[in-house]
Amino acid sequence: HPVIQILSANKIFPNGTQALDAVDLNVQQGEFLSLIGPSGCGKSTLLKMIANLIEPTDGRILWWNGGPERIGSAGSRLAFVFQDPTLMPWARVDANVRLALDLERKGADKSDVAARIHAALDQVGLAKFARSYPRELSGGMRMRVSIARALIDQPDLLLMDEPFGALDEFTRNKLDLDLVRLSWERRLTTLFVTHSIYEAVFLSTRIIVMAANPGRIHSELVIDEPQPRD
Ligand code: ADP
Ligand code: ADP
Q: ipTM for the complex?
């Protein structure tokens, strides 16, 4: 079974704009899927629909538990990284990462929580900056904090909407390498929106090419099969 099945999803916004037309898409466990296409072809709308931030006008989104069972949605097993790292400016780096932890688990064990925050920051090379404030970090470092925050609750699905769009090319290339490493280690199912064909080819197991007016899937390119877990 795929983990997500999108069945002829349409989206018409209240102002009449048709953002998506009859989109069918299956997402398999462990895929790194890039969505590319011109501005306005519905990439963000599709991602937000999967994140349950936008309802489809028609069509269905089905979720599977990785096996044969249907589930309601990914819920807290889903993490979303936006282009803007959206860190809380008044909170230190470790507190920003802590925000993403499930409240019940937060209460569980303080030293465990601290260890997990440290591990998450260490993974993105920022363990030394746990006590810094966001303003003391570069744009690339802030994006890495944002990725650490997305990964700390061990999501089953990672959604990223042009995460590196605002960064210079050098920083972007470094983060691409980090993302490949994290993705390979975790075999994390990822949907990644980008304008960069280079980035899509470099990072993805499969590329979905979208077209505009109305937004739809034009074609797909399989780069590599997703690696099985263990
Ligand atoms: P992309 O991410 O590929 O640039 P979007 O998903 O942001 O495309 O937008 C797809 C289309 O839907 C565009 O024409 C955009 O202007 C329109 N759109 C997006 N959000 C809204 C909204 N809230 N209300 C009306 N139109 C919208
Ligand atoms: P990135 O953080 O992605 O490297 P930049 O290249 O803009 O973004 O980094 C700006 C500055 O921050 C550089 O001087 C870089 O050496 C420093 N820097 C970035 N990451 C670290 C790190 N993990 N440890 C120490 N300094 C860092």
A: 0.73
